[in-house]
Amino acid sequence: MPAPVCTDDEFVELWKKHGNPSSVARALAISVRSVHERRRRIEARRDTALLSNIGPGSVPLYKHAPQHSARKHADIQDGVALVFSDAHFWPGVRTTAFRALLVLIRELKPKAVVCNGDAFDGASISRFPRIGWDSKPSVIEELKACQESLEIIGDAAGKAKLYWPLGNHDARFENRLAQNAPEFEGINGFHLKDHFPDWAACWSLWINSDVVIKHRMRGGIHATRNNTLNSGMTIVTGHLHSLKVTPLTDYRGERWGCDTGTLADPTGPQFVDYLEDNSTDWRSGFIVLTFHQGRLLWPEVVYVLDPTHVSFRGRIIEV
């Protein structure tokens, strides 16, 4: 990516002087779109809004939701981020999507790998009652399965940054302890993240200030569209296991709502009794985000075809 034509401080001073994107674009001899992109990045880094003098009074044309203490930020100008979710890691289980993730991590050499929630299932500490005489792994067995699986992914990722926006199943670990052993608050090991020091735990990961990755937002069959429509951002979620990309174009430009599917097998032991032999609109796979000069290209799906093959970019990959 070419070097910026001015520093952030110089850009802010130009903005204060001119107060609108067209004038700043002329002053810097760049496009209005580039001005908006630079403005959003500065606002994200400084957690502030650059106000415009267009129209009656000064109003923010672009302002983030208030900074949350459990929000992480990443900057990817040129490169790839792989996003998987809903692995529900189970002792002794290695799925097709899991193997494919390792293959594509090694091939694409991502800048970031994101575990977008529900790596830990918490079957034995669910608020839901036991189903018949089903057998579930213990908390320690699940914890070890998560540690082993995420360590393998981390080793394959090399120098890539590792992020973990937590999901509702992940929250079962701390919720049970907070409800039943509140006296142990703050002691090491009582937070799920204590057991995964290589993965940066958060509620959301923001990439380049306009792509949000979090476990869940809206629900229902139109969740991906409603997520990006209501957030005004490209937003990548899990939770619903549907694995799809929904584009949305309006006056602000183009953005996407993505569902990362499930890294688990939809017919796996985590779900067999829970689903009661019902059909599901679930798909196994994950999402690839590619950035070029800070701009997100059309998100891509890696989709499990059968127990030994996945589809990606028109290729059939054996894993």
Write the layout of secondary structure elements.
Blueprint: H1 8-18, H2 21-28, H3 32-46, E1 51-52, E2 59-60, E3 71-74, E4 79-84, H4 96-108, E5 112-115, H5 139-157, E6 161-165, H6 171-180, E7 200-202, E8 204-207, E9 211-214, H7 223-231, E10 234-237, E11 244-250, E12 253-259, E13 285-292, E14 295-296, E15 300-306, E16 309-312, E17 315-318
Parallel strand pairs: 3-8, 4-5, 5-6, 6-7, 9-10, 10-12
Antiparallel strand pairs: 1-2, 4-13, 8-9, 11-12, 13-14, 13-15, 15-16, 16-17
Helix pairs in contact: 1-2, 2-3, 4-5
Describe the structure.
The protein is α/β, with parallel strands linked by helices. The chain has 2 domains: 8-60; 71-318, Purple Acid Phosphatase, chain A, domain 2, CATH 3.60.21. 27% of the residues lie in helices and 24% in strands. It has 7 helices and 17 strands. The strands form 3 sheets. Strands 4, 5, 6, 7, 13, 14, 15, 16 and 17 form a 9-stranded mixed beta sheet that branches. α1 (8-18) packs across α2 (21-28), α2 packs across α3 (32-46) and α4 (96-108) runs parallel beside α5. The longest helix is centred in the middle third of the chain and has 19 residues, at 139-157. It starts with 7 loop residues before the first helix and ends with a strand. Mean pLDDT is 89; it is low at 54-63.
